Automatic annotation (TrEMBL):
Its main location: membrane. Signal peptide: none annotated. Residues 120-555 form the TRAP C4-dicarboxylate transport system permease DctM subunit domain. This is TRAP transporter, 4TM/12TM fusion protein. It comes from Salinihabitans flavidus. It is a multi-pass membrane protein.
Length: 639
């Protein structure tokens, strides 16, 4: 009788425990450096990348990845040990030539080329473990593009790259893996991942869901509205749509289903809200800090610019849920089931409110994003100890929060390192400039067509990627194109960020829906199509603020008249589209196909920034709302 295969390792395995300990120390070191030290740039970037690689190796060991390595664990451990040794060898050579990098006398030779290849190979393999194949396949495609340039047709043709030059720019210079983007993320973003992990461990999530449920229980579809609020708040702090869905969806999705919504609808609401949180100020999944640097604007200005589009995006989501609840005859919770908020509940709301308020106050007084993040983390810890008795009784939660934040930071850093390889190829080949010039040429005569091309490019490049790496690559490749077409820089970057985020719900990849659907017990693709419908306003808002930049408040020439007309158009469009797609209106009840078609046309027309059309839409909405309900012809026939 053959022996049973060894059981897969668990989170309590000593190797993973060691990885979590190192991740906690990693987080602690980030906080300490922000508070007290200034490090050498090259040492800091390489050290953070090396620690990130080690943390991913230990917390996601190969023996846990496939059944083959579970059955033959020594092979997995051997491969992992080889990866650590290979990255260590790459580190030795990196620091050997560091002085040559500073002096500008670096010369590629077989030894440092081999070391660089080993380092990049480890980086790519570990990124597959952390994020799957999407990002790595894209990076390898760009590398291949760089080497075959002379044989490519038309716009894609370029001079090509030699191995030595590629290794110099991708690994040994400060333009690739250890370039400015890596430094920017390490300096300003990682602390916000720790901030989100600490908030989650203090119990802020449970408090927020409880309070949201109580406040929305008397609205039709209240459980879904509560989930939108909770997932939106935590989504703005998460670096990954998938991580936010997995973290909050286990609470919110069952809550939505219990009120009578279908499994697919519940998963779609959670996915839409979680992805929308990545676009919500003040944190915006830390992409706001990278955007501010790329656009050359103060962080506070970018936060202000993002506020109104995010508000209307969520109004659109609330409206769709409300209309769907009417169509499904889902009533508010009975009075005896409405949670009663106690003094303790309002105190617990401070677990979220105080850290975010402290963070924003630090911004307002002019401190750096890193310092603001540090203040937010410390405030979250203090409020957790003061307000949450469980947090006081279990101080190990602090270490768990640091470990969670360290693991998220390590995974993000590997993804950013791979983005560095892509950026090295882009800079070396000049493809981004030619791409931007081509789209700009289209945009000179047909801005809408240029925007549609940019949208599809952003959706394709962003598929399967977490928010920050997706935004980085799209901002480099596509944002300059629509800026050249005449779009203000902030509007252009906000445009590509929106579609980088919404790539998480666009079929066929729709990776956010593949996380939510199993939790809900639904089908991923059906969930994705419902999420697209629920997010229709969020998908259209970027076109609105490109044509009406006053909606961003700080993007360019500002006009109160334009802002007022844009707000009016959006409000009309939101309800027309929500009632058309949701199939119901509180004054009418369920809508027939004819009335839904009229509302869909009015909603689409209201989105177009031309005064006669939006004025017609407003008048049409008034007629539709006050006169058509009295005509039985327009009501839906009984089912």
């Amino acid at each position: 009788m053959s022996a049973a295969p060894p059981a897969p390792i668990t989170a309590r395995h000593p190797v993973q425990v060691a990885g979590r300990v190192i991740a906690a120390l990693f987080s602690l070191s980030i906080l300490v450096v922000i508070a007290f030290f200034v490090l050498d740039e090259a040492n800091a970037r390489f050290g953070i990348m090396a620690l990130s690689a080690l943390i991913v190796v230990l917390t996601k060991p190969l023996t846990q990845s496939t059944r083959l390595f579970t059955r033959i664990p020594w092979v997995g451990w051997t491969v992992d040990a080889a990866l650590v040794v290979a990255f260590g060898w790459a580190a030795i050579w990196f620091f050997r030539v560091k002085q040559e990098l500073y002096s500008g006398f670096f010369m590629a030779n077989p030894q440092n080329i081999t070391a660089g290849i080993m380092g990049m190979a480890v980086l790519l393999l570990l990124t597959v473990r952390a994020w799957g194949w999407s990002l790595v396949i894209m990076a390898l495609t760009f590398v291949g593009f760089g080497f075959v340039g002379p044989w490519l047709p038309g716009l894609l043709e370029h001079w090509g790259m030699y191995l030595g030059d590629f290794m110099q720019i991708a690994w040994y210079s400060f333009d690739g893996v250890f370039g400015r983007t890596t430094g920017l993320v390490a300096d300003t973003v990682l602390v916000f991942l720790i901030f989100g992990a600490v908030l989650e461990r203090t119990g802020a999530g449970e408090s927020l869901i409880h309070i949201s449920t109580a406040l929305t229980a008397r609205i039709r579809g209240g459980a879904a509205h509560a989930a939108i609020v909770a997932s939106g708040v935590f989504g703005m702090m998460s670096g990954s749509v998938a991580a936010n869905i997995a973290g909050t969806g286990v609470f919110t999705i069952p809550m939505i289903k219990r009120q009578g919504f279908s499994a697919n609808f519940a998963g779609a609401v959670e996915t839409s809200a979680s992805s929308g949180g990545q676009l919500t100020p003040p944190i915006m999944a830390a992409a706001v800090f990278v955007m501010a640097d790329l656009v050359g604007m103060p962080f506070a200005m970018v936060i202000v610019g993002a506020a109104l589009p995010a508000l209307f995006k969520y109004i659109g989501l609330f409206a769709q849920v409300y209309a769907s609840a009417i169509r499904m005859d889902i009533e508010p919770l009975p009075e005896d089931q409405v949670p009663v908020l106690t003094r303790r509940d309002w105190l617990n709301s401070l677990l979220v409110a105080l850290p975010i308020a402290a963070l924003m106050a630090t911004f307002v007084v002019g401190k750096s994003p890193a310092v603001a993040g540090l203040v937010g983390v410390l405030t979250a810890l203090v409020t957790g100890f003061v307000l949450n008795p469980d947090f006081r009784r279990e101080p190990v939660r602090v270490l768990q929060a640091l470990a969670d934040g360290g693991i998220q930071a390590a995974q993000i850093m590997l993804a950013v390192g791979v983005i560095g390889i892509v950026l090295a190829v882009v800079n070396e080949t000049g493809v981004a400039i030619r791409f931007a010039t081509s789209i700009a040429a289209v945009g000179d005569d047909f801005l809408l067509l240029a925007l549609i091309l940019a949208m599809f490019g952003a959706l394709i490049l962003g598929m399967g990627l977490p928010t920050l790496p997706a935004y980085l690559i799209i901002a480099i490749m596509i944002a300059p194109a629509i800026i050249k077409a005449g779009v203000p820089p902030l509007a252009a970057h906000m445009f590509v960020l929106y579609f980088a985020v919404y790539s998480s719900i666009v079929p066929p990849i729709a990776y956010g829906c593949y996380i939510a659907a199993p939790i809900a017990g639904g089908h991923p693709l059906t969930t994705a199509f419902i999420a697209l419908r629920l997010s229709i306003v969020g998908l259209l808002v970027p076109y609105v603020f490109v044509y009406s930049p006053s909606l961003l408040l700080v993007a360019g020439p500002f006009s109160w008249a334009e802002l007022g007309s844009t707000i009016l158009r959006l409000l009309v469009a939101i309800w027309m589209l929500a009632s058309a797609f949701g199939g119901a209106d509180p004054r009418v009840g369920k809508l027939g196909l004819a009335q839904r078609a009229v509302r869909l046309s009015l909603g689409a027309g209201a989105m177009i920034p031309l005064a006669p059309i939006w004025a017609t839409a407003v008048i049409g909405a008034a007629i539709l709302g006050f006169f058509f309900p009295r005509l039985e012809l327009w009501k839906a026939r009984p089912q």
